[in-house]
Amino acid sequence: MRILKYLFLLVLLSFVAATIFIATQKGEYTVEKSKIINSPKSNVYNFVNDYRNWGDFSAWITDDPTTQINYSNKTSGSGASFSWDGNKGSGTIKTLFVKENDSIAQQMNFDNLLSSVYWTFKDTVGGTKITWKTTGRMNFSMKVYNAFNGGISSIIGSVYEKSLANLDKTLDFEINTFNIKIDGIVKKDSTFYLRQSFTSKIANVTKNSRIVFKKIINFCDQNNIERNGKPFLLYHTYDITNGLTRLSFCVPIKNRMLTSSGSDILVGELPTFDAVKTTLTGDYSHRKKAIDKSIAFVNANRIDLDVSFAFMEIYTVSKLENKSPSKWITEIYFPIKPKVIPLRTYTPMKKLEEIQVPDPKVIKQEESSEF
Questions:
Q1: Residue 366: which pLDDT band, with cuts at 50, 70 and 90?
Q2: Side-chain half-sphere of 175: how many Cα atoms within 13 Å?
């Protein structure tokens, strides 16, 4: 019995000592991991900035197929958020601040513990250096868990390392896998559409399209307007030198209609036209390559372009239908001048002069003899 007493006291003292040791450990923590991603900085930033892409690289999600994800109405930029619930815990994360192509600040609540999350993106040799940093404060139960599992730096750090490796692999394939096909000269059918027009930086067109298309589609839904195809862009001007474009964000509709006076959403009609069609399969970052290839085709075949607008883009398969950039399909149309069929010319026939036909000669015949 005495031995059991001593053993019990030893266990109790060990437990108390461990408890005191854990309780006195520093509660604040910082975990930071970096990796060079083999993709341009803008691509990496845009991918991380949209929470709909996190299921492709976040190890918390990829390692647990049972994880349930709920997205808010806004999934990218300041104010965006999403929540998850899985075997390894549940939580929410919200974007507090973004600096385009530079940094993102977020707040995460993981199993009722708050932490601050920071992302930075820097150009470097070989691609983009991305740094993922988390700061927070541990409660007692978290200290206990970390003490018996190698420490918080090891636990969160390993998840970050695996997630960044997934991100590099995903972007290397999804962003850099693309195809450009020149389809030749086609006829584009006419359509009515709702539009919102303004001048934008060319670099911001993709970001702006997500916002404006959603606004116009919501306008259609709220007013029971029947849509008639995929959203498209009409580039009225395209100034590569200054990086600016005057364009219209358009959603095709079934029938002609009128919008109320003062509305920033207007109605337009696109007539049937002939065009050089190019199909880009892949991420929008390859748009310039598709445009350059289209222009080369136009010049090689001495095709006269129409100047009514610069060109048109239709998002045939977009992020709304498929979250994988390598599967996106964008159709690009450069309008060409209609063929002029020359009229056949006819030389009027000269009036025929009257032909003087002489009177026939009368030949007198001898009277027949009776004999």
A1: very low
A2: 21
Judge contact between 214 and 194, C-beta under 8 A: no
Q: What share of the chain is helix, strand, coil (3-state, %, to 5)?
A: 30, 35, 35
3-state class of 266 per DSSP?
strand
Q: Mean pLDDT, the chain, as a whole number?
A: 84
Q: Which residues contact 302 (CB under 8 A, 6 or more apart)?
A: none
At 94, give phi and psi (nearest 5°): -135, 140
The answer, yes or no, to whether residue 24 has pLDDT greater than 90, is: no
Torsion sign over Cα 61, 66, 72, 74: positive
CB-based contacts of 227: which residues, under 8 Å, 6+ apart? 217, 220, 251, 252, 253, 254
Which of 298, 274, 293, 272 is closest to 282 using CA atoms? 293
Judge whether 140 and 22 are in contact, CB under 8 Å. yes
Q: Please say whether the beta carbons of 235 and 201 come within 8 A.
A: no
Is 89:100 a contact under the CB 8 Å cutoff? no
Answer with the residue of higher pLDDT: 60 or 121.
121
177 contact partners, CB below 8 Å, separation of at least 6: 282, 326
Task: Record the pTM.
Answer: 0.72
The answer for residues whose C-beta is within 8 angstroms of residue 202's C-beta and 6 or more apart is 238, 240, 243, 244, 245
The closest alpha carbon to 170, from 84, 81, 62, belongs to: 62
Phi and psi for 99 in degrees, rounded to 5? Answer: -120, 115
Pair 56, 45: CB distance under 8 Å:
no
